[in-house]
Write a structure and sequence with these properties.
Elements (H helix, E strand, L loop, with lengths): L2 E6 L2 E6 L1 H9 L7 E2 L6 E4 L11 E8 L4 E8 L2 E8 L5 E8 L4 E4 L5 H17 L3 E3 L2 E6 L2 E6 L6 H11 L4 E4 L4 E5 L2 E5 L14 E12 L4 E4 L2 H8 L11 H15 L4 E6 L3 H12 L1
Parallel strand pairs: 2-4, 4-9, 12-16, 16-18
Antiparallel strand pairs: 1-2, 1-3, 5-6, 6-7, 7-8, 8-9, 10-14, 11-12, 11-13, 14-15, 15-16, 17-18
Helix pairs in contact: 3-6
Length: 288
């Protein structure tokens, strides 16, 4: 079957099927991650006819505002399903299935580029959880050879803060602005760029050791403090794939990642204004 190999989070993923292959060859964000050769650890196969499942238990339902779609994540015994439906006419955009523990995700043919891109992100999320590889909703700055994850809900100023780093901190650069990949390798956390970077086109196929986590909140003044272990857990956990965190099996795997990360990487809370002093404060606190 026609396919493309992607290097994601230290693993090689074979993405198969004519619709996915055509999309990835035309999607500029994927090009830095395309591999000429390699043995795939995981496979995501599009163009498969999936039988319907009547007795599935819904795990999570959420909106994908980019194309006004409704996403449904469900399970039946060890089989998981992910579907995207057009919210306007309820048409099925794409459906996927994954047997827990398997290295393969199967998906239907998909012609919608946004649905294909997001469904591939979801497939890699399911596969990666088995190997302590996960996406983290964050904006990532690299400075002095270390990666800093800036965490927070949408609208809290992650991208604004990292832009302030780029403007005011010499030798700082952006690794990813929405969905970097966090891995645990030999007990150490590493951060990789990914083909998913939100509204900021930043597709960097590199990895850096995790230097620190910073949870952001808006405030009338700048202040930063080190978090305790329970606070660090609460700072990182909400930024992992939320639908998977609603399922006990996947949540257990992802919680292991969180525990490994906060055992070795410092975590902070930064309450701040959108100004240069906030970037300078966070840089000085983390790097000295």
């Amino acid at each position: 079957m026609e396919g493309v190999l992607l290097h994601l989070g230290g693993c090689t993923v074979a993405v198969e099927g004519q619709c996915a292959t055509s999309f990835l060859r035309s999607y500029g964000g994927a090009q830095p991650f395309v591999a000429d050769r390699g043995e795939a650890a995981w496979t995501v196969r599009y163009g498969v006819e999936l039988p319907s499942v009547a007795d599935g238990e819904e795990v999570s339902r959420f909106s994908f505002s980019e194309i006004d779609a409704t996403c449904i994540f469900s399970r039946s015994a060890d089989e998981y399903r992910f579907e995207m439906h057009d919210s306007t006419d309820a048409a099925l955009l794409v459906a996927m299935r994954h047997r827990f523990g398997s290295a393969t995700v199967e998906a239907t043919f998909c012609t919608n580029a946004s649905a294909l891109r997001f469904s591939l992100w979801f497939a890699v999320s399911m596969l990666g959880a088995m190997a302590k590889v996960t996406f983290v909703h964050s904006s990532v700055i690299v400075h002095k050879g270390g990666a800093v994850l800036f965490l927070g809900e949408s609208g809290t100023g992650k991208s604004t803060h990292t832009r302030l780093w780029l403007k005011n901190i010499p030798d700082a650069h952006l690794l990813n602005d929405d969905s970097p990949i966090l891995t645990i390798e030999k007990g150490r956390p590493w951060v990789y760029g990914s083909p998913w970077s939100g509204k900021t086109p930043c597709y960097v196929a590199r990895r850096f050791p995790l230097k620190a986590l910073v949870r952001l909140s808006q405030a009338p003044q700048n202040a930063m403090r080190r978090l305790s272990v329970p606070e660090a857990f609460a700072a990182l956990q909400p930024s992992l794939p939320p639908a998977l965190m609603q399922d006990e099996r996947y949540a257990d795997l992802l919680i292991d990642v969180v525990s490994d990360v906060i055992s070795v990487a410092p975590a902070y809370h930064l309450s701040c204004l959108p100004d240069a002093d906030a970037a300078l404060l966070s840089c000085k606190t983390i790097f000295g």
